TrEMBL record:
Protein name per the record: AMP-dependent synthetase/ligase domain-containing protein
Alphabetically ordered keywords of this record: Membrane, Transmembrane, Transmembrane helix
Family affiliation: Belongs to the ATP-dependent AMP-binding enzyme family.
Tree of life domain: Eukaryota
PANTHER family (alphabetical): ACYL-ACTIVATING ENZYME 17, PEROXISOMAL-RELATED (PTHR44378), ACYL-ACTIVATING ENZYME 18, PEROXISOMAL ISOFORM X1-RELATED (PTHR44378:SF4)
InterPro entries per record: ACAS_N (IPR032387), AMP-dep_synth/lig_dom (IPR000873), ANL_N_sf (IPR042099)
TM annotation in the entry: 248-269
Cited SUPFAM superfamilies: Acetyl-CoA synthetase-like (SSF56801)
Native source species: Gossypium tomentosum (Hawaiian cotton)
Chain ranges of the AMP-dependent synthetase/ligase domain: 207-288
UniProt xrefs under Pfam families: ACAS_N, AMP-binding
Domain Acetyl-coenzyme A synthetase N-terminal: 127-180
Length: 296
């Protein structure tokens, strides 16, 4: 069990710092933590103050970070309060998150004068989302550019008492790959928006690769057309490949064609791959031949 903050001595901090900090630096950390606790005993605010003061540095040992963090939250009741918070965004940082942008646009209309900003009004907005699922999830679906092939009759149907959690989006039909690839008026989902970022394995000397939404759509469409011309909708198609950009394109192509993607780890032995192909009743498999270099 972690020591409480008041039980952590200067010697504890110095030992946890190993050879990376001096006794003077340990003293500075000790005094800064004590001052933070004295100003406000709430663990969340103490830790936030420790972070904002940059008391702990990136080069300090992980053990020192752990000692301070767990001692600050030593009396924190996880069952009531949830996991103890580690990172606190600034107000500017919070406003550019996906949720922050939604709150800034819709918060004043939904919460009225009660809305202040994404940080101060988070609990109010959370409560609103729980009590008004139709309004909140309509906003989220629009934000995610979800397009239904058949629209749901409602967002949440609570009419069936045998389903205490209700039925979400009853009657809806969609193709999630289509939702991912369609162009949109959303500012982060235009044709020239970056859709994939990757670097070739083992080639850290090369630049990072990027693919736009338009480029991804074009490549996925090629795969989808090939699958659609050969198989029927609902057929299972397996993928036994490393997680490369080609695997992502193939996966989306299978889904876009209306088939079922069966993911198989490329590390599996032949017998395990055979079992998964048989159980899923896969009609085909995408894979690749590994190059083996033999040196004499």
């Amino acid at each position: 069990m972690a020591k409480r903050l008041g039980e952590v001595a200067l010697e504890d901090l110095y030992k946890a710092g190993g050879s990376t900090i001096s006794i003077e630096e340990a003293t500075h950390i000790y005094q800064a933590i004590a001052a933070s606790k004295a100003s406000d005993p709430d663990p969340r605010r103490v830790w936030k103050e420790v972070v904002s003061r940059r008391v702990l540095k990136p080069w300090h040992p992980h053990h020192l970070h752990q000692l301070v963090y767990y001692s600050v939250y030593a009396i924190w009741d996880v069952s009531i309060n949830g996991p103890p918070l580690y990172w606190f965004p600034s107000l500017d940082e919070s406003k550019i998150t996906n949720l922050g942008r939604i709150m800034e646009i819709h918060g004043p209309k939904l919460l009225g004068t009660s809305y202040k900003d994404p940080i101060e009004s988070f609990s109010l907005f959370l409560k609103f989302s729980v009590h008004h699922p139709e309004t909140y999830w309509s906003i989220v679906l629009e934000e995610l550019s979800v397009v239904f092939q058949k629209s749901p009759s409602c967002i949440l149907d609570n009419s069936n008492k045998l389903k205490p959690s209700g039925a979400w989006l009853p009657g809806a039909v969609l193709n999630i790959a289509e939702c991912c690839l369609l162009p949109s008026t959303h500012p982060t989902k235009e044709d020239n928006s970056c859709a994939l970022v990757w670097r070739e394995e083992g080639r850290d000397d090369l630049d990072v690769n990027r693919m736009t939404l338009k480029e991804l759509r074009e490549q996925v469409t090629v795969v989808a057309n090939a699958v659609d011309a050969t198989f029927s909708k609902g057929d299972a198609i397996a993928i036994d490949m490393p997680m490369t950009v080609s695997a992502v394109v193939i996966y989306l192509g299978i889904i876009l064609a209306g088939c079922v993607a069966v993911s198989i780890a490329d590390s599996f032995a032949a017998k395990e791959i055979e079992t998964r192909l048989r159980v899923s009743n896969a009609k085909a498999i995408f894979t690749q031949i590994q190059k083996i270099q033999i040196r004499s």
